[in-house]
Protein 1
Amino acid sequence: MVGGLVVVWKTLDEARIEASGCTRCRLAEGRTQVVWLDGNPESDLMFVGEAPGFNEDKLGKPFVGAAGKLLDQLLESIGLDRSGCVICNVIKCRPPANRNPEADEIATCSPYLRAQIEFIKPKVIVTLGNFATRFMLDRQLSITRVRGQIFKAFGAKIIPTLHPAAALHSGGVGSPQFALIRSDFDLIKAELAKDIPAPIPVRVPVPEVITESPLQQDPLF
Ligand code: URA
């Protein structure tokens, strides 16, 4: 059970298959394909964005456009790539002309994200922007007020940060918004490091030191 809602699928793949043909809301009419997730579902780290855009809808993967490139750069800055995290969105279909998702679309799509969290069980969930943060924390918060803090929900640590598109809109990597996201990524790295169990000390047998007197040595050695 996740967030009070029983997830009906037995596996993540069952949920993906159902989502791939979903017609539960109006967004099904305009989409090219459902955008499920990218990255490694075995990972402890999940990023949740808002909704697929033009490129994501065409390629069927989240964050493959300009915002995705920035996300990849941010991951690299903490020594990760997509194989070290899983990336998805609050809603799985592109809204027309990239408009904001409507409340009923988010509610209708929510079992899919809940299933992703239920089966992947990330330890750290990073919410990118207002929509993901409000969904995960179930409150009408402002991302600029809560970014860089750690919350607990869905059995995970939730770290809200600005959506990479916010940095792009204000000038990209040189912008103050980018600097804020970068500092939040340092927090993400630190939190992940806390969750990595300390290595089990291995007891290496100390070899016995045998000192031979020169007189005992084979003279032909
Ligand atoms: N913005 C998002 O929120 N998600 C994507 O997949 C791409 C851009």
Note: The radius of gyration is 23 Å.
Protein 2
Amino acid sequence: MRRTTGATVVTGGAGFVGSWLCQRLLADGHEVWCVDSLATGRRENVAHLLHDPCFHLVLADVCEPFEVPGEVDQVLHLASPASPVHYLRMPVETLMVGSRGTTNALDLAERKGARFLLASTSEVYGDPLEHPQRETYWGNVNPVGPRSVYDEAKRFSEALTTAYRDHRGVDAVIARIFNTYGPRMADQDGRVVPTFVHQALAGEPLTVAGDGSQTRSLCFVEDTVDGLLRLAASDHPGPVNIGNDRELTVLEIAELVRDITGSTSTVAFIDLPTDDPKVRRPDITRAEELLGWRPTTPVREGLSRTVRWMAGGRTQRATA
Ligand code: NAD
Ligand code: UDP
């Protein structure tokens, strides 16, 4: 076994970001325990890792207490629906995984004496009144709006993580991840990049919400994973924004996807979802200063890789 460092637990490891994290951790010589219920993840995301003796897939709902054998250095807690389509379909489950699931993941880290990383989100800033968003901003979240099941679950997770760090001595850190995209996002996941790519490749109209002037800042998944691992390896408590500071309107994203795919799809304007944030761009000064990290993949290149994966055989390893 090439076990050069201790084991890492990745909750939500069979999801989009989690599968890339597991892959990178294995490549770096870690033993990996991937704990996932497959609520929104897929076994095929990690199928190419199953042969590795250092990779262990545990099918479990983290809302119930869970355990892994042996020593654990890090618990990276990603388990949670993440796409608006998913969390609106699973509202109570989303709140439960943010509360019970995060409690169980923190308890595991406490028992094992492990570093804990919470995969929080830019959604804690809600529809932000500060732009770009710095970690010091407290956010503008509607606590009873449809998105609150996700936003407030993550805000509770942040509070719980802080309490375990300050009062129970868990070495914990909060990462606030901004919109991340790349191969292995599911077509039906509803998020903007896989939706537009799927529509462009199928020659269907690209469904732009509102007038498409709202902005997002897209970070390629390999960059996000690198930022998360650097943060986990640091001794900083966070929160730290992990995202790309290149901001695009949704209409610009649609144009880029059309251009890269060479599609003749038209644009169909659809209703803007309730409480859809108008702008979103991270201030990543803290990540740059603390971790020496900033994303390196240009959006056009990352989108091209995503298009190739969605248009081609979707071989998980081909994108490694
Ligand atoms: P994803 O849906 O692909 O992955 C989430 C994983 O968690 C899935 O494999 C799912 O099966 C698993 N899961 C959900 N509930 C569970 C439960 N109760 N027990 C065990 N496993 C469970 O989403 P993703 O985009 O990979 O997001 C991963 C994490 O990163 C999430 O916590 C999300 O909030 C956070 N995040 C992602 C983004 C992004 O743009 N992708 C942005 C901000 C934050
Ligand atoms: N969006 C869109 N068409 C779609 C899906 C999403 O215009 O088919 C918009 C959505 O309204 C939002 C942006 O794209 O303004 C990003 O949406 P996504 O669901 O990817 O992430 P989030 O809203 O959580 O940032």
Note: The chain has nine helices and 13 strands.
